[in-house]
Specification:
This protein is mostly helical and about 140 residues long. The protein has one domain: F1FO ATP Synthase. It starts with a helix and ends with a helix. It is rod-shaped and about 80 Å long.
């Protein structure tokens, strides 16, 4: 019973880590687009003849795309790196606890092994979701 509770706790921690990585990726993607939006606002104000204090000249479209793409790439790298780290830690803890449980009760090895495998599948699924979010961040957003 303890191993099931520990496995559930590990899965919950892995899901929380993946959600945090997704939030970091989305936030970095939003902030990567902020310079482009600011440059468009400055350009529109200059076209209307309004003075913009402390504003730089409008940025070329190519430079805007490069900044947004590099920001997205950094965000995707951070997201998948943290998700993989969280998943690896969770899997390592699950395997360690399962091995410990099997060594204490060899007769329950089948039940412990099956619940461990189920937990590992859920942890790996969360890491794959983080990979999908990272790929979507780079190519779609």
């Amino acid at each position: 019973m303890r191993s099931v509770k520990r496995t559930a706790a590990i899965i919950t921690a892995a899901i929380a880590a993946a959600l945090a990585c997704a939030a970091i990726a989305v936030a970095a993607g939003i902030f990567a687009d902020a310079p482009a939006a600011y440059a468009e606002t400055v350009y529109a104000a200059e076209q209307e003849g309004e003075a913009v204090d402390g504003a730089e000249a409008p940025v070329a479209d190519e430079e805007q795309d490069d900044g947004a793409t590099s920001g997205k790439a950094i965000a995707a790298g951070i997201a998948i790196g943290l998700a993989a780290l969280g998943g690896a830690i969770g899997m390592g803890m699950a395997i360690a606890k399962a091995s410990e449980g099997i060594s204490r009760q060899p007769e329950a090895s089948g039940n412990i092994r099956s619940s461990m495998m189920l937990g590992l599948v859920f942890i790996e699924t969360v890491v794959i979701y983080a990979l999908i979010v990272s790929v979507l961040l780079i190519f779609v957003l």
